[in-house]
Amino acid sequence: MVDLKKLRESTEKIINRDDVKYVIGWEKGTHGFQVTPLFITSSDDVERLIFNPLCVHNLTVFLMLQEKLPLRKGAEEDKRKVGVIVKGCDSRAIVQIIQEKGLNRDDVVIIGIPCTGVIDPKKINKKFPNQTKTVDIDEDANNFVIKIDGKTHKVPKEELLMDKCKQCQFPNPIIYDVLVGSEIKTTGKPNYKDVESFEKKSLKEKWEYWEKQFEKCIRCYACRNVCPMCYCKECMVDQLNPQWIRRSVNVSENTAWNIMRAFHLAGRCIDCGECERVCPAEIPLVKLNKKLEKEVLELFDYRAGLDVDVKPLLSMFKPDDPEEFIL
Amino acid sequence: MVSHFGFGECFFAISSAPTKKEYIEVSVMKLGKVTSALHECEIGDTLGVRGPYGNNFDVKGWEGKNLVFIGGGIGQAPLRSLINYVVDNRKNYGKIDVIYGARSTNDICFKPEFEELEKRKDVNVHLSIDKEEKGWKKFVGFVPDNLLKIKPSPKNTIAITCGPPIMIKFVIQNLLKIGFSEDQIFTTLEMRMKCGIGKCGRCNIGNLYVCKDGPVFSYDQLKNLKGEM
Amino acid sequence: METLTLEKNKLPQLIKKIQSRYTVLAPTKCDNITLFKPINDYKEINLDFLNSKVSPKSILFCQTETLFKFKQGISAEVKSVDFPNSKNVIFGIRPCDAKSFSIVDFVFKDDFVDPYYMNKRENTVLIGLSCIKPGVNCFCTSMNGGPAFAEDVDILLTDIGDKYYVEIKTSKGNEVVKTSKDLFSKASSSDKNKKQEISEKVEKAITRNMNTKGIVEKLDKIFEDPIWKNISLKCLGCGICTYQCPTCHCFDIQDETTLSDGARVRVWDTCMNPEYTVHASGHNPRPARMNRTRNRVYHKFNYYPKNYNIIACVGCGRCINDCPVNIDIIDIIDQAREVKA
Question: Is C255's CB within 8 Å of B8's CB?
């Protein structure tokens, strides 16, 4: 658990700098277990900043969502830096985007938090339904400590953690300007058990499974908009001329969308799991991403977002790259 | 609304006057998917048409009044219909001024018609282009500035403007400066539209839909709307 | 019109009877979420649900609807689509969602009647099911509705223990059950009291509420206020809030073709999408997320009341439940009310 006082101090120092326009962190949400992104624009806002195991959001997406609107005559572009607070997995997004030259390292100030895992909102809402009042949450080594209406519940972490956190290998931010807290030792190894067991299914079974999933898709594109890696100026799904994917919502078009989304993340997905968290149709999108992550690792021994100096997978070529798939 | 099946449907103002009974004309600038396809059409191709939708200029109510038309770029298309109607019923109206500006001489819409119009003694035409060009002896600058220079008298006059949103904004400002009152200023607006009948939602300015409640609005109406243009 | 009761164990029989004359759509479990789907058998129905994940507006205002078909080319031809005219029953619709139809009707009936929506609307009977367990973000009681509100359905069923209290509100509703009247019993005054008790109890269990008093006038005064910018800072610009909203009715129209055939379809669209309003010239009247967020709120709480004299929100809470960044419409209205104008 991060020392909140230290986190606020570090944040205050950064927001008081002249060259920072805002720092993105988290604050208490409007109800129950909700936590929400907070844009800190002055030191007055710092007291609203929190960090606890409910802080699932990967805030790096907001770096890519900054709007560049036409300026009024005579107005100057605000070139100040943006501060962002990141967990281990979140930081990989920044690394990967810098690798892709989508972001300039000098334009961001990064506050890193070594993360001991966050809670899956779906799991906690199921365990404690009907929580309207906001809830205080804490943790010890093995449990989440949840205080509801004066009563304290100790829940083993294993029960509430996001699945991605259970096999996390990167709890420590890979890139940061300030690290709040001390680094966590990890023993995590890439784990693709779920992918492997799914791979064993027959083609028919796989198709039936995904057909059922994609049928539910309502094409709200929350998976795309929440993804820090989805920062194309114009998404292929929005293009009209040529139109790659029709606007009709049916299994065929939905499949095209979901598969293309996953492919565009091959060698780029940093496994923050945000797409799956936000999907209103509860489509297990991480399963798709993981499959591609596994392929990329096996074929090219590459993992996204680990080193700013490495070229992104799809823009490098090695003579010994496997090529069995090339006809 | 004009449909090119397989490409889609687009909204256009009818740019021919109701005095032309044999046909209607729409003016199409080649820009997007549908308009590009429309430009590829040949005589004999089948298109779909539905409409007309929305309201219209109050040509009957304006009889006996002076009219000032202020157009910019392709915003001239809906004004052309009105100007031609008024010219065809010339005796019913007072003094007529047509102020029109385009980016360059190449961008002037309906050039031959302006030339015809300029020959008439009972219509005053004031053309302008944004940037200086060789051989251009008329006004150089933006339409709102040309308007200030011409300074039409607001007395018993209706001003009708159409053009890019930013031009409309400054034209209205300048009309007010000259002394026009809010109910003397009319504009016909453009918005992205899909259904044309006030259902698909996208063309609202405040609570009014440009497709259904417009496209003709008086400034009196517009200034009270909470919405973006 | 008439109040009856129905023993719970007779519900399967009733559904079966209705199915002989109507297509029944009911809440079903689709993988891990509940959706309204046409059912073949009573067993497919899942009545242990809070509310469907996607609102049943998708039944009358389909996410994808073919407007007409055409042949492309020099001799293009247009062929209208047939309306199925099949009679539908939406069984188990919540009072809030039923209310959304009454609200959206204004748009689809206004000036030009929308035949695609209205045909389905007229051929659909709503058998509502009162809520007995409200969700965290339910606030229907703030929006002139309630967990057992019967005004927008044709028949309302309320679970009063071992049986349902059945209120038949319209002749359309009566038509559905007229062949199965033998399954019902007359409601006694104690049944009525029980319903009253339960509905009051559930109303009390609703903890969130929205104060909309004077909101239309207030919004008129704060269009330029910085709160819209602040609220939209964290907006991702996805379409969840609008697609999930039972009263959002905006759509896009597209031509979709194969080599020779084509169809003009309409699909849900969202005002959160920047492309929604962009002109062919590139000018966008709502260029920033601030404009779009504000438009969503104004459409529901200012424009709609001005046009139709009703707020376009039923308090179902879906936009709050599903927003990835906790943009909360109750919170927005609270903030708007607090702005000094």
Answer: yes
For residue C68, the chain B residue with the least C-alpha distance is: B5
Q: What angle do CA C250, C251, C254 make, to 5 degrees?
A: 165
Q: What is the pLDDT of residues C138-175, one digit of tens each?
A: 999 999 999 999 999 999 999 999 899 999 999 999 99
CB atoms B198 and C110 under 8 Å: yes
Distance separating alpha carbons of residues C96 and C314, to the nearest angstrom: 6
Write out the residues of chain B at the interface with chain C, using a CB-CB cutoff of 8 A: 3, 5-9, 29, 31-32, 35, 44-48, 164-165, 190-192, 194-195, 197-207, 212, 226-229
Partners of chain B (3+ Cβ pairs below 8 A): A, C
Q: Inter-chain contact A69–C287, Cβ cutoff 8 Å?
A: yes
- In this model, does residue A107 exceed pLDDT 80? yes
Q: Where are the domains of chain B?
A: 66-185
pLDDT of residue A327: 59
Q: How far is B120 from chain C (nearest CA, A)?
A: 33
Minimum Cα–Cα distance from A72: chain B residue: B166
Give A271's contacts (C-beta < 8 A, 6+ positions apart). Answer: A89, A92, A164, A286, A289, A290, A293
**How do residues B152-208 score in pLDDT, each as one tens digit?**
899 999 999 999 988 999 999 999 999 999 999 999 998 999 999 999 999 999 999
Whether residue C227 lies within 8 A of chain A, CB to CB, comes out as no
Report the gap between the CA of C81 and the closest CA in chain B (Å).
Answer: 16
Nearest to C326 by CA among A87, A127, A37: A37
| Residues of B in Cβ contact (< 8 Å) with C264 | 3, 5, 9
Contact C161, C124 (CB under 8 A): no
* C173 φ/ψ sector (left φ>0, alpha ψ -120 to 50, else beta): alpha
**Closest residue on chain B to A240 (Cα):** B33
Percent residues over pLDDT 90 in chain B: 55
Helices (H) and strands (E) in chain C, counts: 13, 12
- The answer to whether residues A303 and A95 touch, using CB atoms and an 8 Å cutoff, is no
Are residues B203 and B191 in contact, defined by beta-carbon separation less than 8 angstroms? Answer: yes
Domain boundaries, chain A: 4-67+77-179, 193-315
The amino acid present at A259, given as its one-letter code, is I
Mapping DSSP to helix (H, G, I), strand (E, B) and coil, where does residue A36 land?
A: strand
Look up residue B4 and give its DSSP letter. Answer: E
Mean pLDDT of C74-101: 91
Token digits of residue C233: 């800072």
The reply to whether residue B200 touches residue C110, judged by beta carbons under 8 angstroms, is no
* pLDDT tens-place string over residues A149-162: 888 999 999 999 99
Count of alpha carbons within 13 angstroms of residue A3, beta-carbon side: 8
Per the DSSP assignment, residues forming a β-bridge with C27 are C36
**Residue A25 scores a pLDDT above 70:** yes
| Residue C51 near residue C98, CB atoms below 8 Å | no
Q: State phi, psi for A23 to the nearest 5 degrees.
A: -120, 135
What are the domain boundaries of chain C?
2-205, 215-338
The residue among B183, B184, B187 whose CA lies nearest residue B210 is B187
Quickly name the fold that domain B66-185 has: Rossmann fold (3.40.50)
Instruction: Check: pTM over 0.90? Answer yes or no.
Output: yes
DSSP state of B108: -
- How many CB atoms within 10 Å of residue C122? 12
Please, is A43 exposed, middle or buried when counting C-beta atoms within 10 Å of its C-beta (0-12, 13-18, 19+)? middle
Question: Which range has the worst mean pLDDT, A73-82, C47-56, C217-226?
Answer: A73-82
Decide if C276 and B204 are in contact by the 8 Å CB cutoff.
Answer: no
Nearest to C265 among A38, A61, A248 (CB): A248
User: What pLDDT sits at residue A326?
Assistant: 67
DSSP helix/strand/coil, C2? strand
Residue A96: helix, strand or coil by DSSP? helix
